[in-house]
Amino acid sequence: MLEGILMGIDNLFEPLHILILLLAMMIGFLGGALPGISGTMLVIILLPVSYGLDTISAFILLTTIYAASVFSGLISAILFRTPGTPEAVATVFDGYPMTEKGKPGQALGIGILSSATGGVIGTLFLIFLTPILASFALNFSSPEYFALAILGLTVVASLSSGNLIQGFIGVGLGLFVATIGMDPLSGTERFTFGTLELIGGIDLIPVLIGLFAISEVLRKSKQDHTIEKEMQKVKTKVFDSGIINRIKNTIFRSAILGISIGILPGVGATTAAMISYSEAARWSKNKDEFGTGIPEGIAAPEAANNAGAMGAMVPLLALGIPGSATTAVILGAFVLHGLQPGPMLMTDEPGLVYTIFISLLAVNILIIVFANPFIRMFSKIMKVPYSALGPAIIIFCIIGTFAVRNSVFDIWVMLIFGIIGYYLDRMKFPLATIILGVVLGPIAEEEFRRALQMSQGDISIFFTRPISGVLLGLALLAFIIPLVNRIKKYKKA
Amino acid sequence: MRRNFLASKSYLVLSTMLLTLILLTACANTGDSASNEADNYPEREIEVYVGHGPGGGTDTFVRTITNQMSDIIDGEFNIINQEGGSGVVAMQNAMQQPADGYTLIGDSAYAVTTAAGTNEYGLDQVVPIARVQSDTYALQVKKGTFESIDELVSYAEANPGKIRIGAVGTMGIDEITARRFMKEAGVDMNYIPMEGAGEMHSGILGGHIDVMLEEVGPTMSYIEDEEFEPLVFFSEERIDDFSEVPTTVEKGWDLTDGVERYLMAPADTPQEIIDKLEDASKEAMETEEYQEYAENSYLDLRDGWMGSEDFKNKLEEDIKKYEEILAEIEE
Predict the structure, then answer these.
(1) Coiled-coil ranges per the record (chain A) (predicted)?
(2) DSSP state of B211
(3) Which residues of chain A are within 8 Å of residue B12 when distances are taken between CB atoms?
């Protein structure tokens, strides 16, 4: 292993490779910050470029872009309520309220610190524990995925900012949106009304961008604008000892949680961020403050999504099984470069694998170094009057949404969700719960049905398997404890 | 005054609406009228719609072949991935573009989706340019579970419905082939539709499914690592590298279909352009780079090449065949 690490360092510190790393970081930063342009898309766009490079350069390029974009999605999430990448969706929940409180610099600082720490922890796990983690991930099958999704869904209470009924409506709406399209198990069309566009389902990104970004631009357009008022100072403070003390445990816990979820094939960093935010809220002493712009609310999803993104590399490199959409593209890239992804990759190509490890580590450390100047550059945009900035945000949202599937229909979906989001926002409806349903709904449904198919309809499969049993038990407790507490309160009163 | 106007609400609303409109128009891609000048073709970027996710077998095929073709015809290809409905969504969007040779389709499921009725564009509306790959299925298990196909079949006979057989997706060629196998072999297995190849591989590794229908290309690394073992190949003749593994034909099962990967174009595309692209894909297929990829991914177990005319006839027959099979399965 030590030999491999040294080989990786040796490989990375060639001038060309360093140059590619820095360039890829810039591309990843920029792309990740723009809404709709996700890491997956950047990797696809740069695939043809990678043909022309030697294998090691090509994979430094692709993996660095991925890691950098997962990080920089937080910038527009925090400043404009526009998640730059799907992974940054949960960062909006507390990041933007903190900006509204006039502390965008602090919010960004917390985000950067948590991202970098999460990423580094994730990479260290990746380097040292890949074989163990990979075999742990194999214990997960449909019942476990279902249980995990259910545990994630029970957090609706802490996301619904006190109004549980609205929370349930939100999750229900999200779950409904997730069912539109072709039934993944039987191929039946659901709620498509015979239109071809709906067969492919409603993608997460248009919903996300519509609900959060478009609705916010609409809301702001109703406000009175004076240019002076929009002149905000964004001072980024990455190291603030008071805050670090407050969030260090959250970062650490969320990073571990992020890794554990990230390594599961087919789940990925977006779910990791979502569940980690939920768990942070559940276990926090001040759970009522989540969603109002508190440091823990930014630290939890950011530490988790960066750690989760690194976790997604575990099954890819150890087993040749992609843990997320982006790693699926990287898997294809291995094939295009004449490599055989699978359990033999680490044995056959140790130089390549360790170079990927080391460059991921380098990227996550460099995030801290480069984030400040980059954010300073980016936050100059905050000085632009909103009358110009608002339309620009909408343009980027439209381009980004279109680019996901090259679908004009998705743009309409996004605009419609923008209007829905605007009115729901005015009613103080917890938008996060809708996203919770859209992200976790498909996992819960598909895996529930697949599990039942595996057991031929025997429902005990969910309880007799240890991991799934424990997760469902936790979900049940998570559901009952708040109810019991509430009943106790009523009795006292 | 000017400053006030810029900051005013109406300006914001107006500019937003205008820009939205401009963008929507730009995205709608009106395109030029079809030019018949095949000689100058291609004059701009050629878009290839792929109805399957990036990184998968069909996507990798399209990217590799077009990468070679771009040198041959001196043009650029742009791959557009539109997942959904086994390629139906991508087909629909491609058919809305002008048939001028600048819109192509890379597919692997056309015959099945057409037979199932989810794809509405018949062979009078799309023409194949060429089939490039004809892949070979195998039934694979985790090494050490079943020693041979006979053992698997006799176990399945003794324990109907107990064996979990995985393949990717629902009502696609994977499921159809898996069900045809069960019928031909006279066994009853529990079919589990998997979300993707990755999930299927981890399902076998983790013991969550017992057997899977999969080509050997994507699993070669596992086979070399002695994790997976192919029990039977869906082909007429034995495969060189696996001379000890029997074939379906030997077993008396009439099952040799596999996944075919090909390029298509709207039927109104000028014939000269189709010819030009057909020649280019043939040449691309013969390049050293392509051959190396095909060999690495075990895509060369069967001759993949089939020209436009021949393949059109084959598709016609396949659609009829799948219509019958689907009707049988649904009963």
Answers:
(1) none
(2) E
(3) 221, 225, 386-387, 390-391
- Same structural domain, B123 and B147: no
pLDDT given for residue B9 in this prediction: 62
Question: How far is the CA of B79 from the CAs of A31, A48, A371, B90, B211, in angstroms?
Answer: 19, 10, 33, 11, 34
* A-B Cβ pairs (cutoff 8 Å, strict): 193
A407:B93 CB<8 A: yes
**Into how many domains does chain B fold?**
2
B147 and B289 inside one domain: no
Q: Summarize the confidence of residues B212-237 as an average pLDDT.
A: 91
d(CA B113, CA B105): 14
Contact B197, B218 (CB under 8 A): yes
**pLDDT averaged over chain B?**
86
Q: What does the alpha-carbon distance between residue B266 and residue B76 come to, in Å, rounded to a whole number? A: 19
Task: Tokens for A388, please give them.
Answer: 């110009």
Which residue among B12, B60, B209 sits closest to A336, beta carbon to beta carbon?
Answer: B60
Best of B59, B221, B241 to substitute, by most chain A Cβ atoms within 10 angstroms, is B221
pLDDT 10s digits, A415-466: 999 999 999 989 888 888 898 888 888 889 989 999 998 888 888 999 999 9
Length of chain A: 493
Q: B323 and B284, same structural domain?
A: yes
Q: From A278, A273, A270, select the one nearest A324 (Cα to Cα).
A: A270
Contacts with B83 from chain A: Cβ below 8 Å: 200, 405
CB-based burial of residue A102 (10 Å sphere; 0-12 exposed, 13-18 middle, 19+ buried)?
exposed
With H, G, I as helix, E, B as strand and everything else as coil, classify residue B290. Answer: helix
User: For B190, which of A315, A385, A456 is closest by C-beta distance?
Assistant: A456
A398 and B20: CB-CB below 8 Å? yes
Q: What is the ipTM of this complex?
A: 0.77
Give A-chain residues touching B66 at CB under 8 angstroms.
Answer: none
Phi, psi (degrees; rounded to nearest 5) at A309: -65, -40
Give the CATH number of the domain where residue B95 resides. Answer: 3.40.190.150
Tokens 């309409």 belong to A412
A244-270: per-residue pLDDT in tens? 888 899 999 999 999 998 888 767 788
What CA–CA distance (Å, rounded) separates A397 from A390? 11
B20 falls within a domain = no
Angle, CA of B72, B77 and B80, to the nearest 5°:
150
Position A233 scores a pLDDT of 60
Can you give the residue range of the structural domain that contains B78? Answer: 45-134+259-330
pLDDT tens-digit series, residues B167-180: 987 778 888 999 99
pLDDT at B81 over 80: yes
Tallying the residues shown for chain B, one arrives at 331
Tokens 């591309």 — which residue?
A: A27
Mean pLDDT of A202-212: 88
pLDDT given for residue B8 in this prediction: 60
Instruction: Report whether pLDDT(A32) > 80.
Output: yes
Chain A CB contacts of B89 below 8 Å:
196-197, 199-200
CATH of residue B207's domain is 3.40.190.10
b (16+ CB within 10 A) / e for B76-95: ebebbbbbbbbbbbbbbbbb
Rounded distance between C-alpha atoms, residue B258 and residue B262, angstroms:
13
Number of domains within chain A: 1
- Mutation target vs A (from B16, B45, B143, B297; most A CBs, 10 A cutoff): B16
**Which residue among B53, B84, B224 sits closest to A201, beta carbon to beta carbon?**
B84
A141: nearest CB among B12, B27, B203: B203
Boundaries of domain holding A176: 1-225+232-492
Q: What is the pTM of this model?
A: 0.81
Between A359 and A384, where is the model more confident? Answer: A359
Cβ distance B199 to A265 less than 8 Å, yes or no, reads yes
Phi, psi of A380 (to 5 degrees): -55, -30
